[in-house]
Amino acid sequence: MTVLMPYLFNYRDLPIKDKLQAIVMVTVCAALLLATGVFIVLDQFTQRRNLRSDIGILEDIFGSSSTAALSFGDRHAAAEILSSLGARPGVIAACIYGPDGRPFAVFERDPRAKHIFPPAAYGDWFESDRYKQFKPIQMDGQAIGTIYIETDLAAIQRRKARLLGLCAAIFLSLTGLSLALASRLQRV
Predict the structure, then answer these.
(1) DSSP 41-57
(2) Which of 94, 91, 97, 139 lies closest to 120 in space, CA to CA?
(3) What is the pTM of this model?
(4) Which helix (H) or strand (E) covers residue 147, if one does?
(5) How many helical (H) and strand (E) elements, i.e. helices and strands, does the chain have?
(6) Proportion of the chain above pLDDT 90, given as a percent
(7) Coil, strand or helix at 181
(8) pLDDT tier at 4 (50, 70, 90 boundaries)?
C-alpha cells in the first residue's frame, strides 16, 4: 500500500483534465481487454467444437468404409482405408478395433514414433496438445468394432497465436486513437 501512496497523491494533485483523460483511458482499456478476452475464448471454444465435429464426420466415413473389411477379417483393406487419413493434416494416428476390442488396423503418421493405442472405448477428450475420439462402427444396428482418431491441436494453437497478435495490435491502435480523441475532445 505504501508503494501506491505516491501515485495516489500524484493522481489527486493532477489537474482535472489529466484526471478525466486517465479515467477515459482506464475505461477504454478495460473494455478492450474484456472484449478481446471474450472474443479469444469464444473462438477457441468454436475451434474445438468444429474439430470435434470434423473428426466425428471422418470417423463416420471411415467407419462405414471399413465395415466390409471388419466383417471379412481383411486387415490389409482396413489398413488401406485408414492410410488415406495421411492426406488430412493434423491426424497423428488412427485405429480400427475389432469386436474383441483389440487393434485390427492402424495408421500412424510417423511409424517410427511407435504410437501406443489406448484400449477401445467410447467418447472423446482434449489433452494439452491432442484431441482423441472413439466411435463405434455399426452394421445393421450392431457394433462390429470401434474407430479411434487422434489429432494434434497445432492448427488451433497457431490460430490462437495469430489472434493474440491481432488483438494486441488492435488494442494498441485503439488505445492510441482513444488517447488522441480524449485529449482532442477534452479541449471542447
Answers:
(1) HHHHHHHHHHHHHHHHH
(2) 97
(3) 0.79
(4) strand 142-152
(5) 5, 5
(6) 54
(7) helix
(8) very low
Query: What is the separation, in whole angstroms, between the first and last Cα of the chain?
Result: 37
Q: Is the Cβ–Cβ distance between 51 and 131 less than 8 Å?
A: yes
- Closest residue by Cα to residue 97 from 59, 124, 129: 59
Amino acid at 96: I
Among all chains, which residue has been given the C-alpha cell 489433452? 127
Q: Which of the residue ranges 1-5, 40-44, 71-75, 172-176 would you say has the lowest mean pLDDT?
A: 1-5
- Residues 94 and 67: their CA atoms lie apart, in Å, by 16
User: Cα separation of 161 and 142, whole Å?
Assistant: 44
Determine the Cα–Cα distance for residues 161 and 124; give it in Å rounded to an integer. 25
Largest CA distance in the chain: 86
What pLDDT digit, counting tens, does each position of 29-74 carry? Answer: 888 889 889 999 999 999 999 999 999 999 999 999 999 999 999 9
Measured in whole angstroms, how far is the alpha carbon of residue 166 from the centre of its chain? 17
Cα–Cα distance, 90 to 130 (Å, whole number): 9
